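Hi all, posting the design record for the shared folder.

TITLE: backbone redesign
STEP: 1 of 1
STRUCTURE INPUT:
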């Protein structure tokens, strides 16, 4: 043969030459030294990690004529015959071409006879998962109790397709992908042995494309040896393999994280000019963001399978962004990959998706926002009761609860109550407009003859404020402070002062005012009445006793529960906001 590809030329011949599978190699060597080799061994893993190579090395070791500690030696007649493919006692077949039951029958006939020249007969079946179910069944008995002079070596990339009855009869070895650092060192030795030179960035790109497979990487090196000169550059690798350069990917990543629209579109134009495969380009970009995310998670930087200089560069880039921002953009990239796959205009889909990613901006964690809000609320000075703005929004613990939660009055430090009547300032008569939600204005200054000094609303004596006439204005006043309380007051019939000094609120049922009658809420409502009407009034509730009472266990009847839910101020407010109405009310499977 005039030329031998690098993948065959550099195939390991002894255990010491195997790259990246140290635990498995050590186990196999010890089994040879201690004479504990299993009669059936199964090697599994992705392509190009050394499954068939290890099977051949084990075949050499079993028939090697050297001492146990030095097997295989690679120099005895048996090792040389196996290396040259001339051994009569080594049968290597592929499962794809010999997958039927007839081939397995012929194989069983061959292994009945003793080996010709070596100590053992070795059967290597590559891609064993391709055998048919009948072929596997025909192999079961022989595999469980083979002749003493026979050893089976299986190799597969899809171990899940092998029947469990076969797996249970084999000693299994799962080969892992080769780490990037070991691949880079191995490829560099081969490049120098071939008399070539290569840039570090070019070698890193080849290692990335190999994806943990030695054979894939060696095939790429063969291409570069044929294309380039004695010095292989990054531009050569990008051009011959049709890949996106590492610098282009990093530029695009920086632009997306930094919100640089112009840079994003310029880099995207360069990438499309190369004629790059869209799927592969997006895979590389998403892998970049995955590495950035791992850099931001404590203890996960070691999971990045990249050369050291790339890991340091990615760590510096990730330091300027939050993990939440990187995660959001990675999620959007994953969604974009699915859209581009089925899009009639992939480039336009990418451009619009990149714009959406840029517009997402920096993501701030919810915990940080809540912490800032808490600091703002803590730093805000508390206002005196007399200057409390009724239109202000007060955040209480009632917000954000479940749908069945009933709000209650806030603690004293959150909602200060007005001072007692004895310490109040003298009455400030005014009549607010019926449609406004503002509190009664303060007493205007004495007129000085200047028109500008006159108040906007003329002062009205406090005794002219009537409960029946000004009740809508009072509800608007309460709504500006506690909207849910105003909703409860609207359910009352027309109130009246009966007897004098007592505000009587008549409700159709007890459920409509149950929340207002709570001690804390009742006290707050009394203060609101006193502030608005500027005279001492005691609030009293009047409800009919027409609904059935609680049962023997003290629980409300189904009718009471439905009425309470229908009259709940939060329910009423919700129906008003959405212009809806209450339909069916279900309180449990037993009361429908």
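Okay, here is what came back for every position:
SEQUENCE:
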């Amino acid at each position: 043969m005039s030329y031998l590809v690098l993948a065959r030329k550099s195939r390991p011949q002894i255990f010491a030459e195997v790259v990246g599978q140290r635990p498995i190699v050590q186990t196999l060597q010890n089994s040879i030294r201690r004479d504990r080799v299993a009669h059936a061994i199964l090697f599994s893993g992705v392509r190009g990690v050394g499954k068939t190579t290890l099977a051949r090395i084990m075949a050499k070791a079993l028939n090697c004529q050297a001492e146990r500690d030095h097997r295989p030696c690679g120099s005895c007649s048996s090792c040389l015959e196996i290396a040259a493919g001339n051994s009569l006692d080594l049968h290597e077949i592929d499962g794809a071409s010999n997958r039927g039951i007839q081939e397995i029958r012929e194989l069983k006939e061959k292994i009945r006879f003793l080996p010709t020249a070596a100590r053992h007969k070795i059967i290597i079946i590559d891609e064993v998962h391709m055998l048919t179910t009948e072929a596997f069944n025909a192999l079961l008995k022989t595999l469980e109790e083979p002749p003493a002079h026979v050893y089976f070596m299986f190799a597969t990339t899809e171990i899940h397709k092998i029947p469990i009855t076969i797996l249970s009869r084999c000693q299994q070895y799962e080969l892992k992908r080769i780490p990037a650092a070991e691949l880079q060192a191995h490829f560099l030795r081969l490049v120098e042995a071939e008399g070539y030179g290569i840039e570090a960035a070019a070698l890193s790109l080849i290692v990335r494309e190999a994806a943990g497979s030695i054979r894939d990487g060696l095939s790429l090196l063969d291409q570069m040896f044929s294309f380039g000169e004695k010095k292989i550059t990054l531009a050569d690798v990008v051009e011959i393999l049709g890949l996106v350069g590492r610098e282009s990917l990093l530029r695009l990543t920086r632009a997306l994280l930094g919100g640089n629209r112009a840079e994003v579109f310029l880099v995207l134009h360069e990438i499309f000019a190369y004629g790059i495969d869209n799927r592969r380009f997006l895979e590389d970009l998403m892998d970049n963001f995955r590495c950035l995310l791992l850099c931001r998670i404590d203890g996960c930087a070691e999971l990045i399978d990249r050369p050291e200089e790339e890991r340091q560069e990615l760590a510096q880039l990730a330091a300027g962004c939050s993990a939440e921002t990187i995660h959001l953009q990675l999620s959007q990239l994953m969604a974009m990959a699915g859209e581009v796959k089925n899009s009639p205009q992939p480039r336009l889909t990418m451009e619009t998706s990149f714009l959406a990613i840029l517009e997402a901006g920096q993501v701030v964690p919810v915990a940080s926002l809540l912490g800032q809000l808490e600091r703002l609320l803590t730093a805000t000075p508390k206002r005196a009761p007399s200057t409390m703005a009724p239109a202000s929004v007060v955040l209480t613990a009632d917000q954000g609860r479940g749908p069945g939660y009933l709000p209650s009055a806030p603690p004293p430090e959150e909602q200060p109550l007005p001072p007692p009547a004895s310490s109040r300032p003298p009455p400030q008569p005014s009549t607010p407009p019926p449609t406004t939600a503002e509190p009664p204005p303060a007493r205007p200054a004495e007129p000085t003859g200047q028109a500008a000094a006159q108040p906007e609303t003329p002062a009205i004596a406090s005794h002219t404020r009537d409960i029946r006439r000004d009740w809508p204005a009072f509800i608007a006043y309460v709504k500006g402070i506690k909207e849910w309380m105003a909703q409860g007051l609207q359910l009352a019939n027309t109130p009246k002062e009966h007897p004098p000094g007592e505000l009587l609120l008549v409700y159709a049922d007890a459920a409509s005012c149950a929340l207002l009658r709570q001690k804390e809420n009742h006290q707050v409502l009394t203060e609101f009445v006193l502030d608005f009407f500027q005279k001492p009034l005691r609030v009293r509730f009047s409800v009919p006793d027409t609904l059935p009472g609680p049962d023997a266990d003290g629980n409300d009847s189904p009718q009471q529960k439905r009425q309470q839910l229908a009259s709940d101020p939060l329910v009423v407010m919700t129906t008003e906001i959405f212009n809806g109405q209450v339909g069916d009310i279900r309180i449990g499977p037993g009361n429908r």
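COMMENT: Residues 6-174 form a domain with the Rossmann fold fold (CATH 3.40.50.300).
Let me know if anyone wants the other runs.
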